[in-house]
Structure prediction request, 198 residues.
Amino acid sequence: MTADPLRRALTAPADPPLRSLPDQVVALLETLHAPPRLAAHLRAVHDVAAQLTDAMAESFPQLPFDRDAVLFGAATHDIGKVRHPEELSGPGSAHEPAGYELLLGHGVSEALARFARDHASWQQDGIGVDDLLVSVADKVWKGKRVTDLEGLLVDRLAEATGRERWSVFLDLDDILDHIAADANRRLAFQATHPVRDR
Prediction:
């Protein structure tokens, strides 16, 4: 049976309203007895990724990306913190390879599991637009703006649209400012859920 604190983190109304996680992710978090705070965090980042991908599709329809992959990546990016719960309240990156292995072990494809491993590694070669969108969502949900990361996304947007970099930057900046405006309320929602369910 799912612990009540985890169930609340997965389903409780939030301010601002947060979308539900994909059913597959909810089932996995329940199976793993995930910390409630992790579930709340994944809900917040998943919702921001949905807002971000909606805005990308509307403002930059030429940008090729896989919305379903981005949403799954955002919904599972920190799942390795099930094995490293100390990283829910402190720094650390051990959850990244752990999350990748955990997802593979539960039948998730490598193409989707990679987000758990790579969401903090946007500087490395081979990082695509989907990866950048997950990484941006993982920052802007709490109002954090990372110039280098956003610059990589601006490069992809300018390439896809044929527009000047500065013009693309202004549009992206507006989108991210709008999303970041609710950061304190998302952080408050996350903080109401305990790191441990007991």
